[in-house]
Amino acid sequence: MPQIIVLPHEDLCPEGIVIEVEQGVSVCNALLKNDVEIEHACEMSNACTTCHVYVREGFDSIEESDETEDDLLDKAWGLDPDSRLSCQAVVGDVDLVVEIPKYTINQVSENH
Fold first, then answer.
1. Is 98 in contact with 7 (CB distance < 8 Å)?
2. Lower CB density within 10 Å: C or N end of the chain?
3. Angle at CA 95, nearest 5°, toward 24 and 26?
4. Burial level of 62, CB count in 10 A (0-12/13-18/19+)?
5. In this predicted model, what pLDDT tens digit does every residue of 61-94 receive, in sequence order?
6. What is each CA distance from 70 to 34, 40, 50, 56, in whole angstroms?
7. DSSP-assigned letters across all residues of the chain
């Protein structure tokens, strides 16, 4: 079973976490199911950038992004070549190392 290794994030998972996950699950769903409260303002409908992550290892094992995701990522804070929306990044048969950016662009936040 593949794993998602989440690098430490000051607020969301200070110690980091290793999650065993079935293939076909989005990174966002896996994080949320394991109490890593990543923002997902559009409810994972590929309509915002709040669930932006960096896939530091295993990036090539994820299905390529579509045009909508690419357009949204252009607006994400801290965009880099490893950027993906976690709601669109679906786990395959390879372990992933994921880093959650320090900031997100969100007009409204439920957790002030």
1. yes
2. C
3. 30
4. middle
5. 999 999 999 999 999 989 999 999 999 999 999 9
6. 27, 17, 14, 18
7. --EEEEPPBTTTBTT-EEEE--TT-BHHHHHHHTT-----TTSSSS--STTEEEEEESGGGSPPP-HHHHHHHTTSTT--TTEEETTT-B--SS-EEEE--S----S--S--
pLDDT digits (tens, 9 = 90+) for 24-45: 999 999 999 999 999 999 999 9
| Sequence letter at residue 40 | H
Q: How many CA atoms lie within 13 A of 51 on its CB side?
A: 25
For the record, the structure tokens of 61 come out as: 């094992």
Q: Which two tokens stand for residue 80?
A: 């880099």
Token pair of 37 as six digits: 């409260």
Rounded distance, CA 33 to CA 62, Å? 20
